[in-house]
Design goal:
The complex is a heterodimer of chains A (291) and B (179). Chain A has 291 residues and is an alpha+beta fold. Chain A is built from 12 helices and 14 strands. Chain A folds into 3 domains: 47 residues, Uridine Diphospho-n-acetylenolpyruvylglucosamine Reductase, domain 2 (2-Layer Sandwich); 111 residues, Uridine Diphospho-n-acetylenolpyruvylglucosamine Reductase, domain 3, CATH 3.30.465; 112 residues, Enolase-like, domain 1. Chain B is globular. In chain B, a hairpin with a 2-residue loop joins strand 3 and strand 4.
Amino acid sequence: MYPSRFRYEAPRSLAEAISLLHDGGDYAKVLAGGQSLVPLMKLRFASPDLVVDINNVPGLDYHRADPDGTLRIGALCRHADLERSDLLKTTQPTMASAAPLIADPIVRNRGTLVGSLCHADPQGDWASVVLALGGSVVARGPRGMRAIPMAGFVTGPFQNVLDPDEIAVEAVIPAAQGTRSGGYLKLERRVGDFATVGVAVALEMTGETVTRAGLALTGVGGSTIGVTEAAEALTGQPLTADRIARAADLAAQAARPRTDHRGSAEYKRHMVRTFVARLLSRTDAAAERAA
Amino acid sequence: MTIVYEDQGEQGTEVPVRRIKFTINGQKMIAEVEPRLLLSHLIRRGLGLTGTHMGCDTTNCGACTVLVDGRPVKSCTMLAVQADGHEISTVEGLATASELHPLQEGFKEEHGLQCGFCTPGMMMAAKALLDANPEPSEEDVRWALSGNLCRCTGYQNIVKSVLWAAAKLRAGGSESGEA
C-alpha cells in the first residue's frame, strides 16, 4: 500500500511551516511522528494535497519543567523520550506510567505525544492522561499563539479545534498544587492494541487532603471521557475507602462502553470501576501503611 | 534510482520527485524518490535489499523494522523522503562476507526461527536493544521485542537467541558488520 500523491514540504522553521499551511490550499496535514497519519494515508482514509513534515524544525523535541513546575512537551518529543524520562519518573507519575503503554516499543520511537493529541483518536491513551492532568495544547498560527485546554481541544472523533494554518507546538501540564500521585492502567489484548479499557488518575495532595483530582477514561465511549463528578467527589478531603469506592462507582456510571470484539459493555464497565479503585488505593497513604 | 508504480489512473500526471541523500549500511547514497514512496519500498525495490520484509503493511507486525540513526523503526510507516540526511541499517548490514553477527549466530544456535519471515525485524529490534543494554534480562528482551510479531509462535527461542547473542557479545564475540 502507498498513499495517494501529495506535495511534500520539509520546512526548517515554524514560521515557514505555518506559512506553507496558510498558503497550502484545502487539505494540508502536519507530519510529526507519522505513526497514525502514514497508516491513514496508506489506507486512503486521509489523502492530503500537502504534507508539511516538521521533523526538520529545530527545537521541538524537548520536554522540560519550568521553575514553577509547569511541564512542557514539544511537538517532536517522542513517546520513547517520555518513557525514558527521569523528569517524568520523579515528577509525573500518571504520565510516567502511561508512556510505556503507548502502542509498541518501535512505534514509540517515532510517535509523538502532541501528534497523538491532535490525531484525536477516541481510543488515544495520551488524551486521557492530559485531560486528567488538566493540560492544554499550545497552537501557533499566522495570528499568533493560543493555549487550548484539553477539555475543549477535541471536537469529535479525529477532529480538533485547530485552524488549518495552525500547528500544535507543545502540550502543557500545569504545576501541581501539592504532591502528585496517580497512574494510568490499560487493559489490552496484546501489546500495540488499542485499549479495551484505559483509566487515568491524577491526584494532587497536601498532607492527607486531596487538593486536585482528575480522572479520565479511554476506550469506553465515542470519545475520551473526563469524569468530573468523581474528581469533585474526591477533592478537598482526605482519601478514604468509602470515597474511593464512590469515585469508582461514578466513573463506572460515566463510562459508555459498547460490546465489541474486545469485550462486553458490562465487562468494560466493571474494569473501569476496578481500575479507578486500584489506582486510588495505590495512592492512598493509609492503605499503603496498612498493607 | 527509478521505482516503477502500477498506474492506478490517479489524477495529476506531474510526478513530484525529491532528491535525498542517506546512508544505508554504511554506504552513502543519493536517490530520486516520489514523496509518497515508503522507506520499506525504497529499501526493497529501490535498493534491492529484500532482507527487510513486508508483513502486515499496517504498522503492526514489525517484520519491516530497520534502524534509523540506531533506533528501530517500522519502515512501512515512514516516508522514504524522511530518510534524507539519516543513517539506515538493515539486516544485510549485520554480517560481513566471512562472519555472521552474534545475533545471527544466536538465531542459528537456539533455533530462533521457523519460517524466518519475522526474523530480520526481530534481529534489528534486538540489535538496538543490545546496543543500549549489553546485559538484558529475559524480561528486557521480551519487552524490546513486543512490537514484533512471530506467527510460528517461536518467541521462546527468539528470546533465547537474543540472550545467546548478548552473552557472546559480552564475552568479546566480534561485532562484525556495519549496522
